[in-house]
Amino acid sequence: MSRVIFTGRFGSGKTEVAVNFALHLVQRARDARASSPHTTLIDLDIVTPYFRSREVAEMLQAKGVHVATPAAVSRHLDVPGITPQILGLLQSDASTVILDVGGDEQGARALGQYSSLLRQRGYAMYFVVNPYRPFTGDTEGIRNAIADIERSSRLLVTGLVSNPHIMADTTPDDLVSGQRIVERASRQLSLPIIFTAIERGLAPAVESLWPAEMPVLPIERFFEQPWMA
User: Fold this and answer.
1) Which 3 state secondary structure label does DSSP give 67?
2) Tens digits of residue pLDDT in 93-129
3) Cα-Cα-Cα-Cα dihedral of 199, 202, 203, 207, to 10°?
4) Domains of the chain
5) How many CB atoms lie within 10 A of CB 68?
């Protein structure tokens, strides 16, 4: 799928996941010595000023990920206007496009401006779940959050990304317990878990506890949570 959208509630880690996923695609292409489409990360998160992917744009560019953001004048609007650059990227099949989208009604409306094009061209939209954050600690909360995003964006969530963590205090047991919550929601909502994001340093500790068939994305953390500062 050449257009992948990551969305999620505040504190879910969706931008962290989007950044790591983009870097993963670039590295995978290099490892395979493949001639693959370019990878572009579009920052449409107008809601949360702490985690915007443009904060690490220079690092991403250096590693081979192109970063696109709303025009400077649009960043100060409630919903940035459609820009020719972003429209062109979504219309093209020459690049794998990853969109980082705010996870409330306002953020989803920014995505909704492109909904008709995305439905025509094809997309995958993944809802990032951190079951240790407010309002997504059970299936009902996850269901309500997804419904809000789908209504505002006019697009359907097609899968879940599990991201169970409590920052530096996360233990292997926390990962396993959180994963069970997301797995329960996956079954009850009939939405597949696309992969589980696990901090790279913890991945070896939980490898033996993880089902072999469950894809894992080891991640680096590039953003400090404001409440951890």
Assistant:
1) strand
2) 878 999 999 777 777 888 898 999 999 999 999 999 9
3) -150
4) 3-224 (3.40.50.300)
5) 20
